[in-house]
Amino acid sequence: MDGYNFLHNWPELTRLKESSFDHARDKLITELINYQAYWGGKVIVVFDAHKVPGAVEKREKLGGVEVIYSGEGETADAVIERLVGDITETGQVYVATSDWAEQRMILGKGALRLPVSELKVYLEQARQEIARASEGDPGNGRLDTRIHQATRKILERWRRG
After folding, report:
1. Phi, psi for residue 65 in degrees, rounded to 5
2. What domain range includes position 126?
3. Which residues contact 5 (CB under 8 A, 6 or more apart)?
4. What are the distances in angstroms from CA 66 to CA 15, 41, 115, 131, 147?
5. Contact at 8 Å (CB) between 69 and 77?
6. How many domains does the chain have?
7. Which terminus has fewer CB within 10 Å in the chain: N or C?
C-alpha cells in the first residue's frame, strides 16, 4: 500500500495531517495493525522519502505491519513495484492505491488492485467487528481474562523469574 496516497484520500486522515503529518501517519499505521490482526494477512505500507536529501530505505515492523520508507530518489511506487515482483510468486498480492498508472503496473506484474476507498471500507468494517466482539468481553479484549488460570500462574512465575 502507498501510505501517502492513502493519507491524501481518506478525509479523516487528510484533516488530521493538516495539523500533524506524523500523527496522521501513525493513525494510519494503527488502523493497519488492527486490520492485519482482524484479517490475518500480511500488510506492508510504503511511504515516500524520495525527496528527502540523504534518505536511505528504512524498514521496520510495527505491531506486525511492515513499514517501509523509500530512499532518496526512489518513490513508494517503485518500492511497491519491486515488492510485487518479489511477492507474487508466494501468493496473491493486493496493492491499495488510487494511482491509475500504479494500478496498471501492478496488474501487469500479477497483483490485484485495491482502490483506497475500498480498503477504507474494509478497515471500517474491521473496526466495527472488533468493537462488537469486545462489547461482550468483560476484560475488554485483555489476554489475561481469556487464558486458563493454571497457564496464567505459570506465566506469572516466568515473569517474576
Report:
1. -85, 130
2. 3-160
3. 76, 97, 98, 99, 116
4. 25, 12, 20, 24, 29
5. no
6. 1
7. C
